[in-house]
Amino acid sequence: MTAPVFVVEEVPAGPEFVLDGPEGRHAVSVKRLNPGEDVVLTDGRGHWAEGVVKAAEGKDRLVVMDLHSVTEEPEPEVRITVVQALPKGDRGELAVETMTETGVDAIVPWQASRCITQWRGDRGAKSLAKWRATAREAGKQSRRVRFPEVAEALSTKQVAALLAGADLAMVLHEDRDTPSEALATAELPKAGSVVLVVGPEGGVSPEELAVFAEAGAHPYRLGRSVLRTSTAGTAAVAVLLARTGRWS
Predict the structure, then answer these.
(1) Which of 12, 122, 144, 247 could form a disulfide with 139 if both were Cys (CB 3.0 to 4.6 A apart)?
(2) Pick from 131, 121, 119: which is nearest to 230 by CA?
(3) Residue 171: how many CB atoms within 10 A of its CB?
């Protein structure tokens, strides 16, 4: 088992550091770490350092020692962004959680025409905050040091602009009347950006497909079964990570 990960604003380098606040409380009162155990401190932006627990003080102070060097994890050669249509209820957080654990690099909420859920005003702000908090916690849980970015929700027109700038633009689409290529055999770039659109439960509308096609995106399918929107992105990311060599 790899060492547990804790988030700091800036990764320290030096003989000793005190982890306090919510992260310190989690380390001391929840994880119950003891002297001699290894930990990883990260800023979630690719910088990290390994250390050893020196002492636990009170309920929320963990003294970490032997933080001798800060390492930076390089950006992936193939960066994977999933444009996720808004699912119902808490299935949005489920999608963010599992895609983060799998290894997605960025998540873009999308207000598709067939989405039942609407992000407006305070509700939209709270929902976005939940997605970002979920990505942070899932990043820690899965021992990542570079957490996925969760962008502001985009309209269809804005998603089309994002697709137009990608090295490979893809739309997951399960429709017998629309020719599509298997994701498992798609030709992927050696480097650059892959942007994948995952539609809502009702599917991507013909009008949206046309807008995305004009932006250079082509339809792809995962397999014979049709997955829910909250799980399709995770399955697709797994396929892409395996095929780009990031899981090798």
Answers:
(1) 144
(2) 131
(3) 24
